[in-house]
Design goal:
Bound molecules: iron/sulfur cluster
Distance between the termini: 26 Å
Order of helices and strands: EEHEHEHEHEHEHEHEEEHEEHEHH
Structural class: alpha/beta
CATH topology: TIM Barrel
Mean pLDDT: 93
Number of domains: 1
Number of strands: 14
Number of helices: 11
CATH class: Alpha Beta
Helix content: 40-55%
CATH architecture: Alpha-Beta Barrel
Length: 335
């Protein structure tokens, strides 16, 4: 049986920001998942599987009451599951932080480094917003909430990686995932620059026990994600979300309704056949699984430029895996 690695629940596609590398493409900015659909999802999750829940959007804090209900429901059926809330942090308040702390929810804030790097690609991050994001990160840390940003690096920003990483570390976060922007226009020079800078950060992290996180290079068991979109459609991996709607719609494995869930049997069985072949006789990291899924969608997408950028992106991911293995996944650093 395939295991479920991450269960991403995109509770809304509304967001106050407009990041140029947001992988949730074709947002309508008015769609919300219903409670009935969320309950359907929780009822069909395979019993006993170790799933990590990610509550996301859009901006999930735009639906705080829904977040609270969802967290309580997840904790009721899976008391030991880990839950991460992805947020741009703008609507975080003391009361919300106390709730997150009480339920042991980690925070994954959207921040890419210093104000210039963050504002350049996260459109809508004014100076005032940026100060608020940093203030809320520090406050959450003081309250004992685990906070780990994903520092997304755009091809034009590779030269600032060390500076941005240093800035985020100085906020006191426990770990940072440094990730190349997906479907961005990577070329040979920017890919090389990313890899060189990443190696430098990994060596630093290894020597000083700083916080670069190799989580997506770790092996995963045969399986896939459940990625629930606000309209109730479910995908097997997050990368499908980044493609134009016409491509993305060919990968739905499930549709959640108010009264039940309908499997898209042909698509699901087709995907499982691909994933079985991928996992057969080899160790697969989560990044490799995601890139394999993206390659399936890429085959249907006839656009030449993203394809070239995607090839470079995969080169970067391969290099990152080797660097993580060398510097961060030794027994000394194993979590
Ligand atoms: S804050 Fe998140 S959901 Fe909103 S546009 Fe940026 S990446 Fe997308």
């Amino acid at each position: 049986m395939p295991s479920i690695k991450y269960c991403w629940i995109f509770i809304t596609d509304r967001c106050q920001l407009d990041c140029d590398y947001c992988f949730f493409s074709s947002k309508t900015r008015r769609q919300d998942l219903s409670l009935a659909q969320a309950k359907q999802l929780l009822s069909i999750l395979p019993k006993g599987s170790k799933t990590e829940f990610v509550i996301s959007g859009g901006e999930p804090l735009l639906r705080w009451d829904f977040v609270k209900t969802l967290v309580r429901d997840i904790k009721k059926i899976r008391p030991k599951s880990s839950i991460v809330l992805q947020s741009n942090m703008l609507l975080l308040t003391d009361e919300k932080m106390r709730f997150l702390r009480r339920h042991n929810i980690s925070l994954e804030p959207g921040i890419d480094g210093n104000p210039e790097s963050t504002a350049r690609h996260r459109k809508g991050t004014s100076a005032q917003n940026y100060r608020l994001i940093c203030k809320n990160i520090k406050k959450a840390l003081r309250l004992g909430i685990e906070v780990f940003p994903t520092m997304t690096v755009h091809p034009q920003e590779t030269r600032y990686m060390a500076r941005n990483f240093g800035f985020l570390s100085s906020l006191g976060v426990s770990r940072i995932d440094v990730h190349p922007a997906f479907l961005a226009p990577w070329d040979a020079a920017s890919a090389k620059d990313f890899i060189d800078n990443y190696r430098h950060l990994a060596a630093l992290s290894c020597a000083r026990k700083r916080v670069l996180c190799p989580c997506y290079s770790r092996p995963m068991s045969y399986g896939h994600d459940l990625v629930v979109l606000p309209q109730g459609d479910v995908l097997a991996n997050w990368t499908f979300m980044a493609f134009p709607k016409a491509i993305r719609d060919r990968f739905f494995i499930l549709k959640l309704g108010a009264d039940g869930a309908a499997y898209n049997e042909a698509v699901y069985q087709g995907l499982l056949a691909h994933y079985r072949a991928l996992f057969k006789n080899r160790t697969v990291s989560y990044r490799e699984f995601s890139n394999y899924s993206a390659a399936l969608a890429m085959r249907l997408w006839k656009r030449a430029r993203p394809k070239a950028g995607f090839r470079r992106y995969r080169d970067i991911c391969r290099a990152v895996k080797n660097i993580d293995k060398t510097f961060l996944m030794t027994p000394r650093h194993a979590k």
